[in-house]
């Protein structure tokens, strides 16, 4: 059976061997000389071999001690390296975090917030995957990301959802479209007969008075870049949550849908009963505190 080697005993032996003195080793280790001597003697007993020559008044290594000294140095270096890294991980000073989020959050809300977080935690590496609410939930369920930022695509007892903010649904069309020119509150009935381009968020209309609009739609576009291009060309109109609307686009207008008023909840998704790494926990707490203010 292998002996259990104590780090303190190895450290005291290496100090004695390097300084050639029990007294000097005790002073550097802030211990008494008898305590250091006892630790080295117990280490020798565990190994079953003498590390230091007996008598003579000088500290000299035995051949066994000469062979063990570089091994113990390597072991102490490895131990100290692991201890430093574990401490930094626990303090959120290093680590890797992977998150998945819907594109609207990734492009509209995260850039500024992640810039602040990375500035405060320069040794934490963050990777982001964006996709639909469905794909965000799948990535989380498969353990490919630490947590997600999205709405809930489908109820799942293995996924916890903590709401953070509400995102109102609206109609997006060209600025020169009659809907944008008319102004006023927008009732769903004003959309009847207009060519509606469905997208991944159109399911928010399901179960509302406006559900019939989806049934008459002949176009579905999942890619946001393609959808925006079609809207700019006047191919039709679409519905989007406010955060998904491209701010700064001079060709398009966002018109809040007042009847029915539909909102999607954006929140943090985590796996039920699974702990996060310290770095991931730190980022999640940071985002929960600051995302609502970023809207």
String of helices and strands: HHHHEHHEHEEHEEHEHEEEH
Helix content: 40-55%
Mean pLDDT metric? 91
In CATH, what is the homologous superfamily of the largest domain?
A: Periplasmic binding protein-like II
Radius of gyration: 32 Å
How would you describe the shape? Answer: rod-shaped
CATH C-level class of the largest domain is: Alpha Beta
- Give the termini distance in whole angstroms: 62 Å
User: How many domain units?
Assistant: 3
CATH level 3 topology of the largest domain:
D-Maltodextrin-Binding Protein, domain 2
Number of helices: 11
CATH architecture of the largest domain: 3-Layer(aba) Sandwich
Structural class: alpha/beta
Overall number of strands: 10
Low-confidence stretches: none
Which keywords apply here?
Arc Repressor Mutant, subunit A; single chain; D-Maltodextrin-Binding Protein, domain 2; two-stranded parallel sheet; 295 residues; 10 strands; alpha/beta; 11 helices
Q: How would you summarize what this structure contains?
A:
The protein is of the alpha/beta class and 295 residues long. The protein has helices spanning 7-19, 22-29, 33-47, 63-90, 103-108, 110-120, 133-141, 178-182, 211-215, 224-232, 278-294, and strands at 95-101, 124-130, 147-150, 159-174, 186-187, 197-198, 219-220, 238-241, 252-259, 263-271. Strand 6 (197-198), helix 9 and strand 7 form a beta-alpha-beta unit.
Task: Characterise the protein shown here.
By secondary structure, the chain is an alpha/beta fold. The chain has three domains: 7-90, Winged helix-like DNA-binding domain superfamily/Winged helix DNA-binding domain (Arc Repressor Mutant, subunit A); 95-165 and 266-294, D-Maltodextrin-Binding Protein, domain 2 (3-Layer(aba) Sandwich), CATH 3.40.190; 166-264, Periplasmic binding protein-like II (D-Maltodextrin-Binding Protein, domain 2, 3-Layer(aba) Sandwich). It contains eleven helices and ten strands. The protein has helices spanning 7-19, 22-29, 33-47, 63-90, 103-108, 110-120, 133-141, 178-182, 211-215, 224-232, 278-294, and strands at residues 95-101, 124-130, 147-150, 159-174, 186-187, 197-198, 219-220, 238-241, 252-259, 263-271. The strands form two sheets. Strands 1, 2, 3, 4, 5, 8, 9 and 10 form an eight-stranded mixed sheet that branches. Strand 6, helix 9 (211-215) and strand 7 (219-220) form a beta-alpha-beta unit. The longest helix is centred in the N-terminal third of the chain and has 28 residues, at 63-90. The model has no long low-confidence stretch (mean pLDDT 91).
